Amino acid sequence: MPLAVTAHGALHYDVVDQAAPWERENLPILFHHGIGASAGIWTGWRPALADAYRLVTFDMRGYGRSTIPAADFRWSLDLLVEDVFAVADAAGAERFHLVGESIGGTVALAAALSRPARITTLTVSNGAHLGASIQRVEAWRRQLDEGGSKGWSDVFLRDRFHDGALSPERLAWFAAEQEKWSRASILNALGVLIGTDLTRRLSDIKCPALLLHPDGSPFIPVSVMADLLGGLPDAELNVFGRSRHGLPFSHAVQCAQKLRSFLDSRRLD
Fold first, then answer.
1. How far is Cα of residue 202 from the mean position of the Cα atoms in its chain?
2. C-alpha to C-alpha distance for 59 and 49, rounded to whole angstroms
3. C-alpha torsion sign, points 163, 165, 171, 175
4. Which of 95, 134, 124, 133 lies closest to 231 in space, CA to CA?
5. Which one of 25, 132, 177, 235 has the lowest number of neighbouring Cβ atoms within 10 Å?
6. Quick one: which of 133, 126, 121, 88 has its CA closest to 105?
7. How many helices (H) and strands (E) does the chain have?
8. How many Å apart are CA 108 and CA 110, to the nearest integer?
9. In terms of Cα–Cα distance, which of 88, 74, 104, 112 is closest to 208?
10. What are the strands, taking DSSP E only, across 17-168?
11. d(CA 157, CA 169)
12. Residue 64 vs residues 101, 178, 238, 259, 266: alpha-carbon distances, Å
């Protein structure tokens, strides 16, 4: 089982290496999922990307096959940024394209600020440069206290997907993955976002950036993404109609096609 070792536990990662021989010089793509999601959400992105890029996914800290910190462990944005580079190092990716969704998008922005020489392009899906509110933490804590991880997940699913957006099988799979998250990991990961504001540093992110966003996220209005677009020196924004916070799963094919076009165009620049 491939593991990236850090000072605070190991992180499980997977590599899909099916690129054609003539595409081997392309840099790999590293994917960072968000709270409640899992590395499996990127499966639908593979057909559009795997023929030309090595794909690296991992279970973020606090979930799945990666280390699950104790409830009193101190999480931070810097820690999650270091996790990204620990996985990249373990996968042999000195330079790479970075894709992050939800909190993974915020981590990706911070990672591009932390070590810009290592990140060639940045993709943020349903994520932002601004963190969560204390009100959301209190709401999630109440949901977890009253209904456990399943009760919280049931509410969160409605924030992620419109009715009928997924087949029953895909929805059941996502729900089962989401319900595996522990209360401590959910709240501690969300706590990382409290007070986060990267606005003043966005102009320091020089790499090309692709922004993918739903038109109906209950957490991040499109106006926030417009602000992010305006703050980045080299970025493009794509807003997907009839979508919510589960965009990279419900619209995996469309998102992956946007990323492939973006990366291919940058190879020609």
1. 18
2. 20
3. negative
4. 124
5. 25
6. 126
7. 9, 8
8. 5
9. 112
10. 29-32, 55-58, 96-101, 119-125
11. 14
12. 17, 10, 30, 26, 34
Do residues 207 and 224 touch, judged by C-beta distance below 8 A?
no
Six token digits for residue 1: 């089982």
Closest CA to 180 of 137, 149, 145: 149
Q: In the structure encoding, which two tokens stand for residue 12, read together?
A: 């499980």
Q: Helix-strand-coil percent breakdown of the chain, rounded to 5?
A: 50, 15, 35
Quick one: which of 52, 2, 4 has its CA closest to 28? Answer: 52
Among the listed residues 91, 107, 105, the one whose alpha carbon sits nearest the alpha carbon of residue 29: 91
- pTM of structure: 0.98
pLDDT in tens, the chain (269 residues): 899 999 999 999 999 999 999 999 999 999 999 999 999 999 999 999 999 999 999 999 999 999 999 999 999 999 999 999 999 999 999 999 999 999 999 999 999 999 999 999 999 999 999 998 889 999 999 999 999 999 999 999 999 999 999 999 999 999 999 999 999 999 999 999 999 999 999 999 999 999 999 999 999 999 999 999 999 999 999 999 999 999 999 999 999 999 999 999 988 55
Per-residue 3-state assignment (H helix, E strand, C coil) for 75-94? CCHHHHHHHHHHHHHHCCCC
C-alpha neighbours within 13 Å on the C-beta side of residue 52 = 13
| Rounded Cα gap, residues 71 and 184, in angstroms | 5
d(CA 99, CA 46): 13
